[in-house]
Amino acid sequence: MNTYNPKPEHQFTFGLWTVGSRGRDPFGSEVRESKTPAELVYLLGEVGAYGVNFHDNDLIPIDATPAEAESIKKAFRQALASTGLVVPMATTNLFSDPVFKDGAFTSNDPKVRAYARQKTMKSIDLGVEFGAKVYVFWGGREGVETDSSKSAVEAIKRTREALNFFCEYALDRKYDLKFALEAKPNEPRGDIYNPTTGHMLAFIETLDHPEMVGVNPEVAHEHMAGLNFMHGVAQAWEAGKLFHIDLNDQYPGRYDQDLRFGSRDLKAAFYLVKFLEDVKYNGSRHFDAHAYRTEDYEGVKDFARGCMRTYLILKEKAAQFNADAEVQALLAEINADDGAMAPFLGKYTPEKAAALKEHAFDRVAIAQPGRKYERLDQLTIDILTGTR
After folding, report:
1. pTM for this one?
2. Which residues contact 134 (CB under 8 A, 6 or more apart)?
3. I want to staple 48 with a disulfide (CB 3.0 to 4.6 A). Which of 6, 158, 211, 384 is the partner?
4. Residue 2 banded pLDDT, cuts 50, 70, 90
């Protein structure tokens, strides 16, 4: 029987901040003791993860001395070697410290903007030191509570200038690195700039080196905006910009919950996994989620195992969907094409346009057949519930 055990080829990763979350929320203090980065690597090794990702200050505290930083890195490096885990992605914390209360790259204070660049360059160096190939930018404080405070156009320009700067920095240092932008509509700011994956994709095309920059869409962030996450992922994939992905779960319209992957909307998670597997996405499957506040570290392990197990179950269900004869027969019928419209479709020509304008369509007859989507959707439910 398939026990859904994670393997390195699945590329399942977790952030230090995910399994290292101590369960604090706006109404309650921490419920779990602190663990060192090295200890968290060993925890991830125990549950079968492939890799670990980090913000700069997840690994090294913002006020650490050089000697303390070296000691932490030594222990972290040893843990990686002992467990076989890798570091595919790194990022910068530009949201926790009070200096970033009005943003980092978009702050109205030029000293803050300059410090944010310095901190990010050092963080990029740190990520590359541990082998990261993707570097994520999440602008958690890049926004406003009142539009009186900041020009949205100026914020776009400041963000563009910063990203152009980091692209040139990576090129100058000859880093083998790609950048991925992560969108979120709100929280912790009232409104965050570039709030969806679609906004990010449009912004990337205005950069000096768009080929170096893609997106890191997150389930919860798009669901917070009431959007279909898989559609955003598909758009990013089709554009060649799906450089990384954050998997979790979320109730639409609520605060950023970072629930265990697939624990809330199993059907949406299924379509997402099916898409990633069908297109043979070859990047990390990164779980940016947190265990419930009710859990101790054994519960954190249960959480991490659950994320990976659910993905593998849904991967199996996707393969079942693709192999199901009735499902595939329905899809073939739904997508049937006798070729009669071929002269009118495809690339524009003047002759094609003229012929199409003259063609007589029987719109009443065309509208008559049912599409059988209800039957197809129920077959999907039967597969997901194990009744088929």
Report:
1. 0.97
2. 88, 89, 90, 177, 178, 179, 180, 216, 243, 244, 283, 284
3. 6
4. low
Q: What are phi and psi of 135, to 5 degrees?
A: -125, 120
Token pair for 32: 């779990």
Q: What is the pLDDT of residues 115-126, one digit of tens each?
A: 999 999 999 999
Catalytic residue among 55, 221, 223, 244: 55
Instruction: Give the model confidence (pLDDT) of 159-208 as tens digits.
Output: 999 999 999 999 999 999 999 999 999 999 999 999 999 999 999 999 99
Smallest CA-to-CA distance from 245 within 203, 197, 209, 212 is with 197
Contact 62, 106 (CB under 8 A): no
Instruction: Tell me, yes or no, if 290 is annotated catalytic.
Output: no
User: How far is 213 from 358, CA to CA, in rounded Å?
Assistant: 45
Find, among 20, 3, 4, the residue nearest to 12 by Cα: 4
Q: Which of 10, 25, 56, 58 is catalytic?
A: 58
Q: Known catalytic residue: 58?
A: yes
Dist. CA 21–CA 259, nearest whole Å: 13
Rounded to whole angstroms, the Cα distance separating 252 from 221 reads 9
